[in-house]
Give the backbone structure.
Amino acid sequence: MRLRPLLWLAPLLLAACGFHLQGRTQLPRSLASARIEARDPQSDFYSALRAALLASGARLDGPAADAATIHILTDDVSEQVLTVSATRNIPTAFMLSYRVRVSVDYQGRELLAPELHTVTREYSFDERALLAKQREREVLQQALADDLVALIMRRLAAL
């Protein structure tokens, strides 16, 4: 019987401190209906942003007049060689960078000025495991896109 009040106390304390489950972002009313404009609707970032907006309850097929427009102005991935083998002159490590620039407007007003966000990760390379390293690069690129989407969703929630 003494444990029952403690079971009720834990959720109340979590709710009072602002704890939210990960994955769903509370968006402002201006983003309840939104459109995404991008040059590449097949990119990892576009797909992840679309899924995150839908998970947050946004309607993405609303009429253009009353929908906020999220502009993906830049969406690119680059790779840079970090280290090279001294004996064979073959790359042994790369840095993968994912860069997006996003802006948001609603009914002719600019809610979010164009902002550039970049995330980078390093990964090792071994030519003997070429297929595995290509798959690692793809997984890493998707993880970078997901990180950028989480960052953009936090910015959108703050509008």
